[in-house]
Automatic annotation (TrEMBL):
Protein name: Uncharacterized protein
Domain of life: Eukaryota
Classification via SUPFAM superfamilies: Ribonuclease H-like
InterPro entries from the UniProt entry: piRNA_biogenesis_EXD1 (IPR052144), RNaseH-like_sf (IPR012337), RNaseH_sf (IPR036397)
Organism: Cryptolaemus montrouzieri
Length: 351
């Protein structure tokens, strides 16, 4: 590892066991990495002392604070551990850390009291909400006991099992049914089915990151992938996150959630499932609207980069001139592999 990282650089280490640790790089050799100011991803627990991780136990190493996103492919034959598996996470460190804080600082609403109504009032002011629910995994054969809603800056977990009403809360139902708030889900067929058939709620204005991924993939390769991706796999695909980021959260979905009070570790895992929906949606929308965004920039440049006499002439007509026609693309949704790569490379530089 010597020479591949700078002292103090923030790195993420994924172990063969599936555990993931984050820390500041201290030093390293071909067979060892030393880090300090350590945080365990799953539990959020922190360690002040320096720890050493050895080549035989490390699966991947990721860099956080990079200027340009660039993945270094795995090379198991190379004697240098950095070349074995070193990747740049395609989000600025500040945004990556912010999303972790959002996950940990969730607001847990235990019952329909003043905290509940304050939370609903706050949520109603946002244009987009991430949605994830416990109990919806069986579709119409299940009933939702916990629902997590995320804004771009806060996560809310509503424990419906403790609510005084036996029906689904009408205030949350109103948010899910309204058309002016975008609900962001991943592979949302089952939650839609559960809400509709078990709770008589029609969730409207939905953005499904699974469907968007299928659209992007088919537009790139000409066909849909053979297998659907989990939310964790999509985060790896688009942001190069460690594949283990959501592993424990997804595994916890198979555990019983009936007992109260709920363990804080389980609530953090639930919060993590909803944290990344809006950032993923925003990135996918950027991919889908790439041609549109370029057309907007080019159109405005016709004004801002023109000479004064050209500007006067343009402002005096409503004609769609030839130079305007040339910058408007024929197809709004058309990707190439180069488009996807360029979009990934621009995440860090744009922010």
């Amino acid at each position: 590892m010597e020479g591949k990282f700078c002292e103090g650089e923030r790195i993420v280490i994924k172990l063969n066991s599936g555990e993931t640790f984050e820390g500041d790089y201290v030093k390293g050799t071909a067979d060892r990495i030393d880090i300090e100011n350590i945080e365990h991803h799953d539990t959020g627990s922190k360690v002040d002392s320096m720890w050493s991780f050895y080549r035989r136990e490390i699966d991947c190493v990721y860099r956080l604070n990079v200027k340009k996103a660039q993945e270094i492919k795995e090379n198991t034959e190379d004697s240098n551990l950095a070349n074995k598996s070193e990747n740049d996470i395609l989000l600025p460190r500040e945004e990556y850390e912010r999303l972790k804080d959002v996950t940990k600082n969730y607001i847990y609403v235990r019952t329909d009291d003043k905290t509940y109504f304050d939370a609903v009032n706050q949520i109603s002011n946002f244009e987009s909400l991430g949605v994830f629910a416990i109990g919806s995994e069986k579709g119409r054969c299940g009933r939702i006991s916990l629902i997590a809603l995320s804004t771009w800056k806060e996560n809310y977990i509503f424990d419906l099992k403790n609510f005084r009403t036996t029906h689904f809360p009408k205030e949350i139902a109103g948010i899910l049914e309204c058309y002016y708030i975008k609900k962001v889900v991943h592979n949302g067929g089952l939650i839609k089915d559960c809400l509709l058939h078990s709770h008589n709620i029609s969730m409207n204005n939905v953005f499904d990151t699974q469907v968007c991924h299928l659209l992007v993939t088919k537009s790139t390769s000409g066909k849909c992938p053979e297998l659907l991706k989990t939310i964790g796999e999509c985060l790896t695909e688009y942001f190069n996150f460690p594949s283990s980021l959501l592993t424990s959260s997804m595994e916890s979905l198979n555990e019983p959630w009936e007992n109260r009070p709920l363990d804080e570790n389980k609530l953090i895992k639930l919060s993590r499932m909803v944290t990344y929906l809006i950032p993923l949606k925003d990135h996918q929308m950027g991919l889908m609207l790439k041609n549109f965004d370029k057309a907007v920039v080019d159109y405005h440049n016709l004004y801002t980069k023109s000479k004064e006499f050209q500007l006067i002439k343009r402002s005096a007509t409503i004609e769609c001139t030839d130079d305007i026609d040339r910058i408007i693309p024929f197809e709004l949704l058309k990707f190439t592999n180069t488009d996807i790569k360029e979009s990934k490379d621009s995440i860090v530089s744009d922010k």
